[in-house]
Task: structure prediction
Amino acid sequence: MGNYSKNLTKEQHLEMYEQMELARHFDLQLSKLFARGLVHGMTHYSVGEEAANIGAIYPLRKTDLMYSNHRGHAQTISKGIEIDRMMAEILGKATGQCKGRGGSMHVYSIENGNMGCNGIVGGGHGLSTGAALAQKMKKTDNIVVCCMGDGATNEGSFHECLNMASIWNLPLIFLVINNQYGISMAQKDCMKVEKITERAAAYRIKGIHVEDGNDVLAVYDAMNEAIEDARTGKGPVLVEVMTYRWFGHSASDPGAYRTREEVEEWKKKDPIEAYRKVLTKKKIATVAELDAIREKSIKEIEDAIEFAKNSPFSETHVAFEDNYAD
Ligand SMILES: Cc1ncc(C[n+]2csc(CCOP(=O)(O)OP(=O)(O)O)c2C)c(N)n1
Ligand SMILES: [Mg+2]
Result:
């Protein structure tokens, strides 16, 4: 795998770090709002998965397209969004990205190439394959990234779309954020392959497995290799990034299927702390600089919450708006 990350500037390193902090604090704060009954609809946190998500999405161009899934807050932050409008959306407010109609699983930002999250597991497979075909036919040099979890790779559409992407040689990256569970179902109990990238061989596409998906620079390097392939006409790539969610599947999951020890072991592999160590050891940033970014991120999330709280709820008639193109 190429060492693409060695060319990152200090500014880029700090931008990635900031996105990880924003993603972490967005979900931490959101979990508190959920407990207070302020979140309408279901929401899924990606605390613990920040390196996997930010390392994979940060290297994309603004014009590249991303299809996210139900656990999409970190990916959305990295692809670019107004955070206050994202928070307002999740709180059901009129100032939200979708006027408060969609909630956590329907944030998007077309101008940033974020084609939206999706509550249907595997729902992004067909959409992203179609979008990648469109990019190829229109001869843009944009690529498409289809984000999914490990569980989504057992959907029939995953296999159909890998096959189609392969025969059409599409500029498409299937990105699997493997947190080792689909709700309470452990990967080892629902598939015989040890690495999901083994499945790439069946469709003769390249598979790139990142064993330490909590190392943001390892994820960044893997994704850059995939991006280079997809953008230069070498066809689709399946990227698998190993990580772990610290919280339950959704806001209403007590997590009885995992041991406390397992969760604690993974918390020791905190991706944000790991990146801070790299940045300070390589003298890219000081602890004080990183602390300042953390404080700024926390403040940004607090401001977004204030904005969302002070916004009015959506009115019923908006349900009938934007259903048809003018
Ligand atoms: C087609 C479909 N089947 C089932 C569900 C219920 N469901 C929501 S998330 C989920 C698990 C998905 O697991 P994975 O793809 O590994 O993503 P993770 O939640 O671990 O990030 C399931 C079964 C759904 N939303 N859509
Ligand atoms: Mg999973």
Q: What stands out?
A: The domain at 4-259+291-307 is CATH 3.40.50.970 (Rossmann fold). Residues 149-151, 179, 181-182 surround magnesium ion (ligand 2) (CB under 6 Å). The chain has a mean pLDDT of 96. The CA atoms of residues 26 and 301 lie 6 Å apart.
